[in-house]
Write a sequence for this structure.
């Protein structure tokens, strides 16, 4: 298959994304909030140096 045939095939297959963009954003937000919670939990009981 030539490059132009691949580009045409990719352009014609434009449709619904495999994973909804809001799902990707929600997963990223959950991961970041989990990391933030872990950071606050870990650092909460330590004295300042």
């Amino acid at each position: 298959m030539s490059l132009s045939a691949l580009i045409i095939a990719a352009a014609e297959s434009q449709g619904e994304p495999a994973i909804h963009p809001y799902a990707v954003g929600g997963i990223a937000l959950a991961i970041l909030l989990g990391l933030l919670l872990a950071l606050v939990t870990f650092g909460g009981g330590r004295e300042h140096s």
